[in-house]
Specification:
The protein is mostly beta strands. The strands form 2 sheets. Strands 2-10-9-4-5-6 form a 6-stranded mixed β-sheet, with no helix packed on it. A 4-stranded antiparallel β-sheet has the order 1-3-8-7, with no helix packed on it.
Length: 114
């Protein structure tokens, strides 16, 4: 089973940007769709963005136009560029297959606050 390690989170002011990375221990090329998810305190985990092997991506309505997902199969890494961050984006961010195929990693905390 592929192991996933997320990184790149932190504290950022509203309107700021962060770039998250997800490094996989195994080959993600065989995973057709990879996704970024998030879970805010007291809320269920939700899918934020998904990207297929051909490069086609789709986004949740609440991040459309602000976030961009990408994947580098040669590096077994998935990225999430987050721009124009809002306080509502505060959450722990995770990556996994879409639908989830692996054990969840520890995630990376993103806090948007002034």
């Amino acid at each position: 089973q592929v192991q996933l390690v997320e990184s790149g989170g932190g504290l950022v002011q509203p309107g700021g940007s962060l770039r998250l990375s997800c490094a996989a221990s195994g080959n993600i090329f065989s995973i057709n769709a990879m996704g970024w998810y998030r879970q805010a305190p007291g809320k269920q985990r939700e899918l934020v963005a998904r990207i297929w092997n051909g490069g086609i991506a789709n986004y949740a309505y609440f991040v459309e136009g602000r976030f961009a997902i990408s994947r580098d199969n040669a590096k077994n890494t998935v990225y999430l560029q987050m721009n124009s961050l809002k306080p509502d984006d505060t959450a722990v961010y995770y990556c996994n297959g879409a639908p989830p195929l692996s054990k969840w990693g520890q995630g990376t905390q993103v806090t948007v606050s002034s």
